[in-house]
Amino acid sequence: MALIEISLPKTIAKALRLPASSPRRQQLKVLKKLLKKARFTEFGQRYRFDEIMLSRHPGKKFQQLVPTYNYNSIYKEWWHKTLEGKPDICWPGKIKYYALSSGTSESASKYIPITEDLLKGNRVVMIKQLLSLRHYDGIHYSNIGKGWLMLGGSTQLQKGRGYYAGDLSGITAKKVPFWFTPFYKPGKKIAKMTDWNDKLDEIVEQAPNWDISFVVGVPAWIQMCMEKIIERYKLKSIHDIWPNLSFFVHGGVSFEPYKKGFEKLLAKPLTYIETYLASEGFIAYQDRQYAKGMKLSINDHIFFEFVPFDDENFDAEGNMLPSAEPCMIHEVEEGRDYAILISTSAGAWRYLIGDTVRFTDVDRCEVIITGRTKHFLSLVGEHLSVDNMNRALQLASEEMNVSVPEFTVAGIPHGTFFAHQWYVASDDHVDADQLCSKIDQHLKVLNDDYAVERTSALKEVKLQVLPEHIFMDFLASKGKVGGQHKFPRVLKGNMLQDWQTFINNKI
């Protein structure tokens, strides 16, 4: 039975009918739905949700009455109450689940509220993406109904005082819909395992018993899993054991650095499908095969605002300024970087998630992820984004025909001026000086500010090549193995010091 043929509940089927109204109207409808549901909460009463709903311009009124938050501010003022078991704080009822998230740079865990309403919205978006596959070239419906290997966090959640906490992928897997269970791998028993290496070993052991057509997860961990399977069974490619493997659903980081390494493991091309699933919600998904960006989930369970990511709205550390002026979906421009504020069906209100995006198609509401508000380098005004770094490294590695799946960059002193220090992962033979020079040259073309500063205060660019396992070993030393954990593309502060100490001890 093909997955695409399964009949869905009428309520979900209704939600899947894409409305013809404008993005602005869709978003205002979502906002009103969120406000109506949360108006009797402590937050809703404080910020007069009833008054906002009755306003002629609810979006603008919402922005006037409700302050913006980051994790620290909303936790200190509101979310800590939900962890104490108090109901009706930012969303109706008690919060029973929390996604543990530390982003990619901070060591302390963040407790992100997860509600049934949020999970339901996430599932609707997932189904929309699934149904969009019918428009892909060469699609075989039989493949959609085969196995889906979802490599996420453990479903064995931590028990708190009246709540459970864990990786979002673990919470999602624990609540897999009944109709998806026949297709879901590695299955509930393996998914429950907490030790990443034990889980990986068990997946490798069971691999011959599965007929996998989809793999879903963070590129680094999926690649590691496939390499172990190929090594264990002495295969030429992963298709020797999974001949129907056709799709890779990925997200969280740019896939380009991993693509060359992936292709070495394959006997035939895969269709790559990008998603944007954060702990706070399913934000966007690729709904067209050759789209440059992902379609925002504008008519489901998230209300979006966008803050231009520039010096007028953010300080040098990536903190949003009190004077920042967010805009709504109908006010954005193509080609400009924005930080995202979201309001969700889990009680996140005007919440800065820390990601930056750029609109590739305003009419279709399609975006690409360009980095994070904290993960950029602007020591002297070079305004170097993760998107710039990804692109420059991709071009340089293609020219040199080498695979560089991981990298990170740090700003360091250079006399009385500054330098950029690159650390790249590769098991190929790489001329570090040549790669460094090529990256530098490409960045000068990609980023005018960078080109200017390379003639003044940004005096040097350095590059060190490290074995691939060093990056994974460092994540393991921080307890960030598997699941949604990703290596930070920019290192600062304590994390940079820890990294430098780690590699000095390893090399």
Please describe what this structure looks like.
By secondary structure, the protein is of the alpha/beta class. It has a domain at 386-506: 2-Layer Sandwich (GMP Synthetase, Chain A, domain 3), CATH 3.30.300. 36% of the residues lie in helices and 21% in strands. It contains 18 helices and 19 strands. The strands form three sheets. Strands 6-3-7-8-9-10-11-15-14-13-12 form an eleven-stranded mixed beta sheet. It is globular and about 65 Å long. The termini are far apart. Residues 1-19 have low confidence and may be disordered. It comes from Flavihumibacter petaseus NBRC 106054. Pfam families: GH3, GH3_C, GH3_M. Residues 299-362 form the GH3 middle domain. GO terms for molecular function: acid-amino acid ligase activity.
CATH topology of the domain at 386-506: GMP Synthetase, Chain A, domain 3
Please compute the radius of gyration using only Cα atoms. 23 Å
Tally of DSSP helical segments: 18
| Share of helical residues | 25-40%
Assigned CATH class of the domain at 386-506? Alpha Beta
